[in-house]
Write a structure and sequence with these properties.
The chain is of the alpha/beta class. The protein has a single domain, classed as LmbE-like (Rossmann fold). Helices cover 42% and strands 17% of the residues. It contains 11 helices and 9 strands. Strands 1, 2, 3, 4, 5, 6, 7, 8 and 9 form a 9-stranded mixed beta sheet that branches. α6 packs across α7. The radius of gyration is 19 Å and the shape is globular.
Length: 286
């Protein structure tokens, strides 16, 4: 008897190998449509160029479904100085493909954004925090995205503390939704699972491919759909009673969703919330 799972698994392997021959970037797309001048702003604080694609599932839905103005904040442009200008160009192309705007933190981005700098170089850290405070004050976002505090990569962790330190310096009247993101280390307490459509995942993978230098080194863009499939497995247990029925999503992203108000975080959904492609985002982000 033929084992049907052999074909199932071998098709995954075949598609992954086939994907290595696909073009990197250089994919035509529709230009970004105009948004109302008063469109609410979303700031994605990305530790590196390409993070906007990896964790951008919800941001893409906010742009497309709620017409929010999504702006990717390039916290750094990578640690290799010889690649920083090139990585910025790749980032511009990726953001343009997705319809995201781009905010730079400096000509070459910020440097040494990690907890070592925070602890041992307070003056340099204060200057970096000042940059983020300025961006938050200028754009007054309704929603921000930032890595969670244990996301393994030193710059991801540094970006978490950088943005948190900046939030604490803002006027207490400032408020926004905060979505903590995950990639290198899963969140231990996610409370929001967002389904993504095939069309959205296709666009995230395609935009990821514009980061040519990075995906030549490590073709992570080809594994993004599998990562988002695994989120469904994990989220199905974490977002509901363990042992319950998993949602019938193909792809999803996980976040820790809270409110920032009166100079501190406020919990919103302790038990967890699932939002399918058919559900409105209005209740959470309207």
């Amino acid at each position: 008897m033929t084992n049907p799972y052999h074909k199932f698994v071998s098709e995954y392997a075949r598609l992954l190998n086939e994907g290595t021959g696909f073009p990197l970037g250089n994919v035509p797309h529709d230009p970004r449509g105009s948004l109302p001048k008063e469109a609410p702003r979303v700031l994605m604080f990305s530790p590196h160029p390409d993070d906007e694609c990896i964790v951008g599932a919800l941001a893409l839905r906010l742009l497309r479904e709620m017409k929010m103005n999504v702006l990717n904040v390039a916290v750094t442009q990578g640690s290799r100085k010889d690649r920083q200008a090139e990585r910025l160009a790749e980032l511009c192309n990726a953001c343009d493909y997705l319809g995201f705007g781009l905010v730079q933190t400096g000509e070459r981005g910020l440097e040494k954004i990690n907890v070592t700098t925070r602890g041992k170089s307070p003056e340099a850290w204060a200057e970096a925090v000042k940059v983020i405070v300025g961006i938050l004050e200028q754009y007054q976002p309704r929603v921000i995205f930032v890595p969670h505090a244990k996301d393994m990569n030193s710059t991801h962790i540094g970006t978490h503390f950088l943005v948190n330190d900046a939030l604490k310096q803002l006027d207490p009247a400032f408020c926004c939704r905060v979505c903590e993101t995950e990639f290198w280390m899963p969140l231990t307490r996610p409370n929001l699972m967002i389904e993504s459509s095939v069309a959205d995942v296709t666009d995230l993978v395609t935009a990821f491919s514009f980061h040519v230098g990075e995906v030549k080194r490590n073709p992570c863009h080809l594994r993004l759909p599998a990562h988002m499939q695994d989120n469904v497995r994990r989220g199905g247990e974490l977002m509901s009673d363990q042992g319950g029925a998993a949602p019938d999503y193909c792809f999803a992203a996980m976040y820790r969703f809270r409110n920032w108000a009166h100079g501190q975080f406020e919990e919103i959904h302790k038990a967890g919330k699932q939002i399918s492609c058919h559900d409105s985002l209005e209740d959470l982000f309207g």
